[in-house]
Amino acid sequence: MTGSTEPAVLDLSPAPGAAPPLRKITAQTGHELRALLRNGEQLLLTLIIPVLLLVLFGATSLLDLGTDRRVDFLAPGVLALAVMSTAFTGQAIGTGFERRYGVLKRLGATPLSRTGLIAAKTLTVLLVEVLQTLVICGVAFGLGWRPQGDPLSVALLLLLGTAAFSGLGLLMAGTLRAEATLAAANLVYLLLLALGGVVFPLARFPDGVRAVLELLPITALSDGLRQVLQHGAALPAGPLLVLAIWAVAGCALAARFFRWE
Amino acid sequence: MTPPGNAAVELDGLVKRYGSVAAVDGLSLRAERGAVTALLGPNGAGKTTAVEICEGYRQPDGGTVRVLGFDPVRDARLLRPRVGVMLQSGGVPAQARAGEFLRLMAALHANPLPPAALLARLGLTEHARTPCRRLSGGQRQRLSLAAAVVGRPELVFLDEPTAGLDPQARHATWELVAELRASGVAVVLTTHHMEEAERLADHVVIVDHGRVVAAGSPTELTGAERQLRFRARAGLGLDELLAALPLGSAAKESPAGHYLVEGDVQPEFLATVTTWCASHGVLTEDLRIERRTLEDVFLELTGRELRS
Questions:
Q1: CB–CB of B80 and A113 under 8 A?
Q2: What distance in Å separates the CA atoms of residue B244 and residue B277, rounded to the nearest whole number?
Q3: B82-133: per-residue pLDDT in tens?
Q4: Which residues form the ABC transmembrane type-2 domain (chain A) (predicted)?
Q5: Which residues pair with A133 in a beta bridge?
Q6: I want to staple B23 with a disulfide (CB 3.0 to 4.6 A). Which of A131, A139, A237, B49 is the partner?
């Protein structure tokens, strides 16, 4: 209590009221964005690692990618990784600790409400993804990337991927202890990075294993983006279907089992 | 919008069970608008559970709850802007800066207090840019209190608002609570500091084992009875003293050299005791008249055994 400012006279008389819905959601979104962009570990996961992988394997021939157009193969995979890092890993860890520190509980008693909080979290994830996409595409273009395909298919894949990973991330954050979420979310990130066709071509795996790996959301997203951006396909049915199933299942399970405190 | 003539909080026969244990077991109380109501009780008495039911966090298993005339779960949307909440622990994000968190809480309300002025008021101006995880426990408590009042609520629930605070911070909290009351805000707080309840509350509700064991104003609870204490050399003839005092008075020496005289302590009563001492050449030390404290009442009602 060493405040140097003269204690202000405050009008404490009741004047209750909720802010308009849009202002509540933008305030919460701004708050979440600031916290995220200021967090070094989150930035490592969401920006530095994806860009590093793109540059490392795009500019060198350390890894046999089965094509000379290295960036055309890598960029879609790295975009998929970016979506996973933000919607799944980052969101799971962040929300897990918010739950542990009682922040979710406290926000539940404000006029924001749970629906508003989820809207703000979704908006935050989408805004971070826009930033990631801009940075990754910029670097990829610098490495000579020549994307094909229609933007609509790309947007649809990214949105479905975001929904699937968000559902799974929130399911984890809302059911496990915060420390367990931290460990598990990072482990899943690493495993899916290695197994999901992000930078290591799936063709290297035996057929039987590959068939299973293709059902993973990260594989569906990176493969779908590759079909469009590398090979010019429109609305790749297989990956879209896999992502849609994960999205519905993930969100339904999160809605059912998420515990706020 | 508010049903007229309602108390800030009305609980009637409230029951909340966890498994076979009833954390709240038929609790009834009334907290008036514009008054401070203190829920006093040992650990595990059910204070927090009762408050969290009022805040809409839990659904009771029995009884009725009315907060500002509304049902806290069903009418949550209507109540949230009007009720300020300070949780017993947690509720402050780790990453955000103190000032940012309070500005966010302000932005969720229609007519908030200016966050900077509120921070200044609670001595947190210098920490406005400190990440919350680096605040001390006491600073976090004060930030939590600020967040509870920033929306200019009609009713605030403060769950152990001064637990772990240093004396300066405790006084700052007490002053703010007194000011809230003076501004017409209803305050419901839980505490196990008797001094806090005695000092702040218009109405004290003593809770034990999930039930109300006594309720009233601090004076009603402590009663009008006074007693006299002094120290003097050991082994005074108390029978002789009692003979000089009105019938129904009592005196005892425990431990040796410490005397307690009970009775209708009026000016004459005091004069009789000191005259008697003077006539015996006894110089009393630490002579004082005291009222029963809330702590005496509390221990009488809830027992002296330790609670987990």
A1: yes
A2: 11
A3: 999 999 988 999 889 999 999 999 999 999 999 999 999 999 999 999 999 9
A4: 41-261
A5: none
A6: B49
Place of tokens 């960029």: A75
Q: Do B108 and A16 touch (CB under 8 A)?
A: no
Using a CB-CB cut-off of 8 Å, the residues of chain A touching B56 are 109
B172, B198, B169, B203: which is closest to B186 by C-alpha? B203
Give Cβ neighbours of residue B176 (< 8 Å, ≥ 6 apart).
Answer: B121, B122, B145, B149
pLDDT single digits (tens) A74-127: 999 999 999 999 999 999 999 999 999 999 999 999 999 788 999 999 999 999
SS3 content of chain A, % helix, strand, coil (to 5): 70, 0, 25
Measured in angstroms, the CA of A82 and the nearest CA of chain B are apart by 22
The crossing angle, in degrees rounded to 10, of helices A91-100 and A151-173 is: 30
Q: Report how far apart, in Å, the C-alpha atoms of B101 and of each of A50, A119, A160, A237, B19 are.
A: 31, 19, 32, 44, 37
Residues 6+ apart with CB under 8 A from B166: A1, B138
* CB-nearest partner of B121 from A8, A16, A109: A8
CA distance A201 to A64: 9
- Which CATH number does B7-217 carry? 3.40.50.300
B153 touches chain A (CB under 8 A): yes
Angle among Cα B216, A13, B8 to the nearest 5 degrees reads 35
Spell out the domain ranges in chain B: 7-217, 224-291
Assigned domain for A2 exists: no
Q: Is the pLDDT of residue B220 over 50?
A: yes
- CATH class of the domain defined by B224-291: alpha beta
Largest Cα–Cα distance of chain A, in whole Å?
74
Give domain status of residue A149, yes or no.
Answer: yes
The answer as to whether A3 is a domain residue is: no
Q: Which pLDDT score, from 0 to 100, does residue B194 have?
A: 83
**Residues contacting B304, CB < 8 A, separation 6+:** none
What is the b/e burial string over B274-291, where b = at least 16 CB atoms within 10 angstroms of the residue's CB? eebbeeeeeebeebeeee
Contact A175, A260 (CB under 8 A): no
Main-chain phi, psi angles of A155, to 5 degrees: -60, -40
Pick among A10, A11, A25, A121 to test the B interface (most B CBs inside 10 A):
A10
Angle value at C-alpha B99, between B180 and A258, nearest 5 degrees? 90
Q: Cβ(A73)–Cβ(A201) under 8 Å?
A: yes
Report whether the peptide linkage leading into residue B255 is cis, meaning its omega lies within 30 degrees of zero. yes
Q: Which domain holds residue A237?
A: 21-257
Rounded Cα gap, residues B108 and B92, in angstroms: 15
- The amino acid at residue B166 is D
Nearest to A189 by CA among A165, A171, A173: A165
Letter string b/e over residues B110-134, b meaning 16 or more CB atoms within 10 A of that residue's CB = eebbbbbbbbbbbbbbebbebbbee
Q: Number of structural domains, chain A?
A: 1
* Residue A232 within any structural domain of the chain: yes
